Amino acid sequence: MAGSEAAWQAAERGMEVNLYEMRPYRETGAHQSQDLAELVCSNSLGSSMPDRASGILMAELRAMGSLLLRCAQQFAVPAGSALAVDRREFARAVTGHLEGHPRITIVRDEVKHLPEGLCILASGPLTSPALSASLSNLTGEDHLYFFDALSPIVEASSINYEIVFRASRYARGEIEEGDYINCPFTQEEYSQFVDALLSAERIPLRSFELAIKEGVRTGLSHFFEGCLPVEVIAERGRKSLAYGPMRPVGLINPRNEKRAYAIVQLRQDDLAGDLYNLVGFQTNLTYTAQRRVFRKIPGLEEARFMRYGQMHRNTFVNSPKVLTSSLQHRTHKKLFFAGQITGVEGYLGNIATGLLAGVNAVRFSRGQDLITLPKTTMLGALCHYITHASPDHFQPMKANLGIMPALVDGQKRNRRERAKAHASRARGDFAAHWKAVGERLRIANYERSDAVV
Predict the structure, then answer these.
(1) Within this chain, do residues 30 and 122 fall inside the same structural domain, yes or no?
(2) What is the mean pLDDT of residues 125-137?
(3) 247 and 295 both lie in a single domain
(4) What's residue 205's pLDDT?
(5) Residues 118, 29: contact at Cβ < 8 Å?
(6) In terms of domains, do 137 and 177 share one?
(7) Rounded percentage of the chain residues whose pLDDT exceeds 70
(8) Where a domain ends, among 312, 329, 362?
(9) Largest CA distance in the chain
(10) Where are the beta strands (DSSP E) in 292-438?
């Protein structure tokens, strides 16, 4: 994601770019195709509402002329107020754009050592061991690791539509049918499901994974709190899932006009509507256990799984020690970082840091000042966080309003009003700064959700 966007932005500004991708000659264990920008976890880029953190970041990406956001909008699938994509068509489109660019050469080979020239490192969560060792030598310290978990995908025709119902959370009356398929639980069904989940067999953990489960001694290896497997959430208390990924709030079953005790939501995963993923259901159960346990979800009794959940390692550097807010290495000035290797989480954050790194690499080559966005913008706040957090307790971060500076106008606001005020301030500050540094705003009203780059 980050590398694709970075390559496009640099090439669009006149640079000759070699874009290295080690697949298919060296696989990652998580990717299933040879396409660039393949989404391996969720197919959702987050809420597109203008007063949500992801919506603010989308607006900034539109204004900067993001290729990947344009592709996401082109291959969007129904997902309520969220921007979700047909992951196959999205990756194919990005790959096609990059392959067709006259100044981009795609090299299908593994990079084992960091080059000496101008370079953007956007190697993603599954950086190869050889490159990881080279990077460790450069930074002078070990990497940090956590484990991402993928959600299962089921075939739509195998869902029992006599049990499930369609609705988007907090949908208003004018919306006849929601974008999500909802599987409602009674309290008894929920209790039985939790029992089955807690007793289910998991994929055996390796030595460094066992350290995670027993309690981290080094403080450097852990699950990322924003992407916990459902079985780990269930271990924290029997109601943890009902107050987490299975919360039923904002969803009324039209068959009985009641709210279920718990809900599992399914989100469309392809344009044809043949595939649905279990929202927030990352897991490390064995495939056999997934078939058995997840078929206890009401409506999925005969589900056919097109992809099972799995876990994979995510590698990232201690950005507060090694990076500046412009995403440049503090001492190796020709080296820029982007994407999850920096500790940024979420697809939009990956795309956005790739865009900024691509722009700044070009500016560095031309002797121009590098761009550091204001902390009142979402991308500026995200870059500031990952480069100024405590190095001893650094953990990956997604875009959220909590990392933005507080509003200082003294007005009292409720939560929704504060979100709108943050969004308004971010729009103004971003537009002013982006133009001040000599970059062009790609569209005049970049808040519009239907805008085309």
Answers:
(1) yes
(2) 81
(3) yes
(4) 57
(5) no
(6) no
(7) 87
(8) 312
(9) 66
(10) 305-307, 311-316, 335-337
Domain of 361? 2-143+317-436
Residue 82, both tokens: 């969220």
Instruction: Give the per-residue pLDDT at 28.
Output: 66
The tens digit of pLDDT for each residue in 218-264 reads 333 456 666 788 999 999 999 999 999 999 999 999 999 999 999 99
Residue 441 lies in a domain: no
Let me know if residue 201 belongs to a domain.
yes
What CATH number does the domain containing 202 carry? Answer: 2.40.30
The model's pLDDT over 6-24, given as tens digits with 9 standing for 90+, comes to: 999 999 999 999 999 987 7
* Shared-domain flag, residues 175 and 290: yes
Helices 67-74 and 53-64, axial angle in degrees (round to 10): 110
> Which of 342, 410, 414, 408 lies closest to 379 in space, CA to CA?
342
Query: Residues 6 or more apart from 30 whose CB is under 8 A from it?
Result: 40, 126, 150, 310, 312
Q: What is the pTM of this model?
A: 0.78
Provide the number of structural domains found in the chain.
2
Count how many residues are written for the chain: 453
Contacts of 28 (CB under 8 A, 6+ apart): 126, 312
